[in-house]
Amino acid sequence: MAVRRGPEPAPEPGSGPVPRLALPFLLLLAATAGRAGDARQEEAVRALARRLLGPRAAAVSLSVDPALAAGGPDIYRLWSPPGAGVAVAVAGSSGVAAAAGLYRYLRDFCGCHLSWSGAQLRLPDPLPRLRAEIRAAAPGRYRYYQNVCAQSYSFAWWDWARWEREIDWMALSGINLAPAFAGQEAVWQRVRTGARGGGVREGIGTETDRMAVSGPLKPGAVGPPDPRCPAQVYRNLGLNQSEIDKYFTGPAFLAWNRMGNLRRWAGPLPPAWHFKQLYLQYRIVERMRSLGMTTVLPAFAGHVPQGILRVFPRVNATRLGHWSHFDCTYSCIYLLDPEDPMFQVIGTLFLKEVIKEFGTDHVYSADTFNEMTPLSSDPAYLSRVSSAVFRSMTGADPKALWLMQGWLFQHQPDFWQPAQVRALLHGVPLGRMIVLDLFAESKPVYQWTESFYGQPFIWCMLHNFGGNHGLFGTVEAINHGPFAARRFPNSTMVGTGLVPEGIEQNDMVYELMNELGWRQEPLDLPSWVTRYAERRYGAANAAAAGAWRLLLRSVYNCTGVCVNHNRSPLVRRPSLRMDTELWYNASDVYEAWRLLLSAGAELGSSPAFLYDLVDVTRQAAQQLVSDYYLSIRQAFQSHALPELLTAGGVLVYDLLPQLDSLLSSHSLFLLGRWLESARAMATSDREAEQYELNARNQVTLWGPSGNILDYANKQLGGLVLDYYAVRWSLFVSVLVESLNSGRPFHQDQFNQAVFQVERGFIYNKKRYPAVPSGDTMEISRKLFLKYYPSALQHSLAGPA
Questions:
Q1: How confident is the model at residue 18 (pLDDT cuts 50, 70, 90)?
Q2: Are 678 and 694 spatial neighbours (Cβ–Cβ below 8 Å)?
């Protein structure tokens, strides 16, 4: 379907009509504005500062004053009070606003940087004082973070220590609206939780995990429920454990079970999983709320286990179709009819239990038709479905506000025509739903739906699919898109959001988007990225800044409809019809690689610099793989056996092993880190094996038979050598055999053979190191000296 665009936005930033929003919506915004008390938020943000800065935090005064915002979006103030004791005072309208003000000071006046790949916190001594007060107001009420899929692609194996770091980063980034989804399966099935410090602690692995079970929790915080009031939705409804086990997936695939896409695959969930996730959730919601964040809790979307039909044989439920490339063995979940009484019974019962367990901020998430075609396109039916979902929320919480991902509208545009979109959205009173315009940087939906037909929306940057590695960005789109959306006629935009499917990649893009969440107009990107490089590495360096400006104009500036799903031949099952097209000039990456290496003598002690050197070298190697693939394909098609042997030999026996060595030199690029974090969640050897199989399958086959093969591909030390390189070795061997024998190459036969290699990797039981080895600088330099001249020649020559 052609994308229909609205009128051109006004040219001046910040100009345009004031959005006309429904009165109920304004009331709802006010209802969700208040979180923890001021004193509790102040203490939480001060504790964050102590974790971040240690004793130096004493020179920063932090306070929370909701009156600063006067009921509107967040505001922070920075100033230097008279006297010698305090260098800077930060006041925010919430804990999050104060934390964002603190990071503004650290970033812009102390030259510091914080990201997933590390922190650069070399503070000046003494801390600088401000010459004049700074006051910043967020242009929208919400700065949202998290994609439902990230719960599996990135968060699946996190303990409390990792969650604590993430929530600190969220607060410093100004995030004030985010899901808290852990532990919901424990609510769905019967879980008897003991009193704090009871028998639940037995078998829980690390000290961090034991803390997640036993506290500490502050007075008034969400905590373990009374054991006489178990959360037992499915068991209360009459389902047996076998029926529940056949419904829940394994931990690495729960995101798609929660959205009604997948059931049973890689499960069942062990009892210990429920306990650990439940108590982890207590700490997550307590910390988020203490900082002034609004937590988004799960609600009922209408999907039910097949066992419901046994218990209630007259219930009106219909199987949805299969999802993606899964058949009904693991897909085709039942959806209740919106007018069946059990829809409200189950939905309200579940949400009441969720609220009983975790408290509430009155915002709930539910996605009924994620990548699933509804049973009918009749607008009346679609309106009944959304109305039923919302009524099940208000049955438990009259103040409920529904937060819905808008992915479905752009994913299936042939189905979701204006009448269908309007019907689904208008099944909920205006202002009682917020839609995440999930892929707004490339495929905005608000433009052809008249701002979601009056429902509020958040302009989101999706950016990443599957948690893939690969340098990528749409910086011009995100630098201008949110401002254009605010100026859109009758805009109902209420904030910006970060919604990557996987995190811990492309730090620069997320730093930029977080800063834009507090800006009133676009940034000068070349100047911004130059300052970014200086802050990130803790020193000004002309070569490093030049490298970043090259990356900014190339890999980070995809224009048009851009989908960051890494399809490099490196991480895809080999064939003779692979896509090697790039959206940028490959020579810019090679030159950035050269410049970073030249800065190594000065910046080599910076952890962030070493991370970036690995990442840029990895990107250059990925481009080289494409070049050698093209040489292999050309040699085979020309029946040039010597050239095939040469190109294939270099790829399989030199380039890929050296790339694996490079990745193995950095802790954040290790397969072992992913696998060992999965095993660490286990309380028995059997659980450890199950969790490791979950983790291996997700990044490779994604299903029992390669159903979504390589969707969540990663470039990790161990995975490149034992998975990707083995596939390429087999491919080259089969092509050589084809030329030698004169028999044609058959892709189907190769796929059958390589599937055994892929499946063998999942079950090889090899333990991979979680500690890096090797000298990053030396390995990168060795690769550069060997491949840079030929790489540059290939990039200048263009595609074959």
A1: very low
A2: yes
